[in-house]
Model the fold of this input.
Amino acid sequence: MYIQKSILIFLFGFILLFSVNAQIDVSSDFFLNGEHSDSILNIPKSKLNAAGLIFTTNMSVWAFDRYITNGEYAHINLNTMKSNFKTGFVWDNDMFITNLFAHPYHGGLYFNAARSNGMNFWQSVPYTAGGSLMWEFFMENEHPAINDFLATTIGGASLGEMTYRLSDRIIDDRTFGFDRFKREALLTLISPARGLNRIINGDAWRHKLSRGNSIQDTPLSIYTAIGHRIIADNAKSSDKHDVSNMLCFDLGLNYGDPYNEENEKPYDYFIFKVGGNLFSKQPFIGRVNGIGMLYSKDINLKNPRRQLAVGLFQHFNYYESKADINHVTLSPYKLSEAASVGPGLLFKNRLIKHITFIASAYLSAILLGGSQTDHYNVEDRDYNMGSGFSSKLNMELQFGSKAILSMNSEDYRIYSWIGYDPNNPEDIHTSVQGDKGNASLSTARLNFSYIINKHFLVEIEGSYYYRKSVYTYYPDVEHGVTENKFGLGYYF
Done:
């Protein structure tokens, strides 16, 4: 249904191009003809344009699926639409990356259609839900999926707001010629709905005396790295191992300051990280981590060296790995936190002049997640879906501007409440979340980064993943994975 690898390829390529492009000036101290360059634009609100852009997006994707790829699911008519309404929501059997990454990305298109037409974060969410409902009930001959609706709406809001804010950094309506074309092309790459909207209303080429940003200039740091990764898989029920070597890449974004007292809008602060593999049997997308601040409160402390903030955070996490143990292809761990929200606490303490300690802790309720299964394998689905909770703890020591030592742990628990009973196979296709039971994934990671000069860095990282699946009708399964990585990168 979706071109999976291309999503991360153009996202990675865009941010890399955006970062290394020295001609793009994102400073806020430039004045032109007496008007401040980063004067904030209040985008006129147009509900009709937002809805129309979402409708156009769905029709375009459907036309591609129907007439270019000739997907069986895209052959629709009035009878398929009536059937969808009659059947109602089910749990579908699409691939892991389709349901739990591509659908949130698709939701981000809906979200940006609303954001680029003057809606704020919260006002854009209903438009995202509406776009998802239109697709589920009208644009496919497959029954509407509740997991698609949740992933598209909630996960789409997370990815959509992050891409909207990144695209805003590129806009400069004062520019001409190739510089202007380059900006608009990159903007469209990272936020297709916003780019299309600017083309429709003429902003893509209209010259102005100000930059035309809709969000205040916010601190943004980006790093990219490429290196060597060694993965050692060990199935607890077997003495067989699988060790694989590969070329890997990492991309990280830190947007905003979590301790800024002026934070008042969702995603004024967020973190986004992507890790993947090149030229190997491992998935191209191995890891996606996103945390966005929905609400925050800065707490004043007596000691000026210390800062404390509490808030409500939205989480988006995605993990996937593969192994070949005893000539059998396995997925040691596979987990998604596609729709999740919960409280968090952030602390910063400047210990001495050149050493700073940073810590954060989060709890979240997972409304929709996915987890590895060892049994349920129907059509394209080899994973369970469900809901649960997660916790995260991060600690970091910064040694001036030269070195960073970070440690973090994450724990996820996904419950498949509507489970498949092997004694009653009639329900296996659409009405279950997978195998009845629960799965947990615990991760521990230690990373050391050293900045060689102002930009180049070297990093060493060690990680451990432990997955335990508890089944109602099958024996429990445990799987451990050790990963070590060495990389060279560039810090912007």
